[in-house]
Inverse folding.
């Protein structure tokens, strides 16, 4: 009987520890998740920097960022972002075709929300003659 009580206690402690660890994950908090470039002259690439803070308890590691086309290129903090520290994702859009645009970039990480999407939008207009 004593062994059974000890076994139940160990199982309970293991379950409690596992539940606690689920909450102790990394997590993003972006200053903004969408950026509107407005009107952009054709042929002029534009960039924006998305800043984020790791509000979780574990280091935040971005494993990949996927864009929907080759016209949108992300660069990001490659090192783990510690609790309370900030990181950046810089997105460059190649404004080649005259048209409105709206692009999502999918961020994959070890965060509590492992897949996050940020957005850029605007309108490419004909460049002014110089």
């Amino acid at each position: 009987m004593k062994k059974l009580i000890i076994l139940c206690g160990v199982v309970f402690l293991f379950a409690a520890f596992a539940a606690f660890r689920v909450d102790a994950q990394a997590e993003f908090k972006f200053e903004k998740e969408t950026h509107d470039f407005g009107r952009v002259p054709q042929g002029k690439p534009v960039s924006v920097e998305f800043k984020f803070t790791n509000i979780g308890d574990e280091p935040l590691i971005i494993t990949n960022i996927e864009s929907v086309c080759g016209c949108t290129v992300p660069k990001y903090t490659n090192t783990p972002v510690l609790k309370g520290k900030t990181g950046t994702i810089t997105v460059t859009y190649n404004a080649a075709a005259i048209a409105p645009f709206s692009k999502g970039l999918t961020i994959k990480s070890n965060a509590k929300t492992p897949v996050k999407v940020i957005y850029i939008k605007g309108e490419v207009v004909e460049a002014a003659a110089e």
Summary: The mean pLDDT is 89. The chain is about 15% helix and 45% strand.
